[in-house]
Amino acid sequence: SSPGTIYEAIGGAEAVRRLVEAFYPKVQAHPLLSPIFPEDITPVMEKQYMFLSQFFGGPPLYTEAYGHPMMRARHLPFPITPERAEAWLACMRQALEETVEDESLRMLMLERLSGPAYHFVNQP
Ligand code: HEM
Fold first, then answer.
1. How many separate domains does the chain show?
2. Would the keyword Nucleotide-binding turn up in this protein's UniProt record (predicted)?
């Protein structure tokens, strides 16, 4: 991956792995989010690891495995309300606080994810 990316700044593959591992237990514990996620979260974690790696400037693991991300389309089967987008971002904020030391990097990452999160809202 290229220097100067968020991926490199946070510490590469291991950092993305830690973030994803901190994030999904929060999703599974969240009353608004847990009902729409599968009980076996492992495949979702793996896909998110691959996606976030490339999203933050690392190797294009997700695209290599699954093709064009088309993330809004992939979320259409799941009812995503504005409240669920907020909840997803709140879990991510906590996971970032636990795994990324640099506060300005955390803010930048959350900001980068906020656009897509609200864009995936497909229910009032
Ligand atoms: C998959 C919920 C936002 C990335 C999923 C799944 C659900 C979900 C239910 C499918 C789990 C399954 O396979 O059964 C949500 C909710 C969000 C949200 C409620 C709130 C807005 C995001 C954001 C990103 C993201 C902001 C990244 C920018 C992914 C990825 C997958 C996924 C990479 C796996 C896609 C695949 O199956 O290949 N999400 N998501 N999600 N989500 Fe989200």
1. 1
2. no
- Does the predicted interface ipTM exceed a cut of 0.90? yes
For residue 83, give the amino acid letter: E
Enter the pTM of the model. Answer: 0.97
Ligand 1 binding residues, C-beta < 6 A: 33, 36-38, 44, 47-48, 51, 55, 66, 71, 74-75, 78, 80, 84-85, 88, 113, 116-117, 120
Distance CA 88, CA 30 (A): 9
75, 81, 84: residue to mutate for ligand 1 pocket, most atoms within 8 A of CB: 75
pLDDT in tens, 1-15: 677 999 999 999 999
CATH of the domain at 99: 1.10.490.10
Q: Where are the alpha helices (DSSP H) in the chain?
A: 6-10, 12-29, 42-55, 61-66, 71-75, 82-99, 103-119
